[in-house]
Design brief:
about 350 residues
Length: about 350
Amino acid sequence: MCLAEITLFNRRSGEAERMILVDFKKALQGGALDQMIMSTLSVFEQKLYIYPTCLDVRSRSSTSELNKYAKTRAVSKTTLKKILSLPPNTPDPAIYIISGLLPIEAQIDTKSLILFNNICRQNNRSKEKQLAYRQLLIKPDNSNSWYIAIKKLLYKYDFSDIIQFLDNPPKKFEWKNIIQKKVDLYWIHKIIQNSRSYPTLTYLNCDIFLPRKIHPIIDLNNDNNPSKGALSIAIKLKLVTGTFMTQSKRASFTKSEYPLCKLCDDEDEDIEHLLLKCKVLEPIRSPFINQIEDNILKDASISFYKLSTNTQTQLIMDCTKLRHQNSDLLLNRKTEQLCELISRKH
C-alpha cells in the first residue's frame, strides 16, 4: 500500500492504470484502506475517470489491436503489483486473490458482452443487428469478425447459442446480472486453480477468493492504527506470496551468498526460521507469541509451542487458511480477525 508508488502512476497514466485504479477503489470501499490512501485513490481516480480508447471492445479482432490488448493486460498486472507494493515476480493469481479484482480480460469481456446485448435490443431493421445476423451466418469460426469473437466469448462463459440472444434479447439489467454471475464463476475457478500451481503461495488462503472482496490480510477495517498497519501489510504480502528474500533464497540465486541466517548463524534462513526459530529475534517475537496465546489460544486450551511448525507458521502468515486444512487448530471469524491484527506486529 505504498502511497509514494501510487503517485508515480500520475506520470504514466496508461490505459490499464485507469481501469485498475477505478475498480481497485471500488473493491476496497468500506474501510479496507485508511482514509489517507482512500483519499489519494479518489483524487487519482477523478483524473483518470474516462475509460481508455484502446479498450474499445469493438476492435479486438485485428493483429495490432490484439497486440495492444496484450500490452494493456501486462501493464494492468504490473500496476496492481505496484499498488500492493509487490515485486514483478509475484504470481499473478495472488494479486487478484488479495485485491478482489478480476483480470482486465474479464472486464473487457464483460463490456463486450454488454455491448452485444445493446445491439441485440435494437430494432430488427438496424444496420448493426442486420450485420450481426449476416456475419454469424456467413463467417467461419476462424474469422476476425467481432461477432464471431462474441460467439466464442459466449461459449467461453457457458452460454447457449448466440442467435437466441439476437432473437430474444434479455433486458439490460437482467443481462448485466447474468453476465456478472457467469464471469465471476469462470474466473473464480480459473484463478484458484492457477494458484495451486505456485508452491510459493502455500501459506496464502487462495480458496477465499471472491470478486470485489478484498482478502482479510489487507483489511484494515478493524485496525486501530491503519496507517501503521498498512506498512506492516506491505511486508506480510511479500511473505505470503513467497517474494520475501530470505537468505536461503538469496543463496540459491547467488553463489557468493550463504544460506545461513546472518543474525544467529545457527540454521539456514527460511520463512520458518525467520518467524519462529531465530534466537536473536526471540526478544522481539516473544511478546507477540504471548499475545496470541492469551487472546487466541486460551479458549482452545492449547499452547502455541505445542502446535506443529506448519500450524504455527500458518497462524502467523494467514490464519484464515487453517479452516480449509486438517489443522490441529480451528478459529472462528472473530478470532481470525484478532489473530491477523496481532500477526501484523510480529
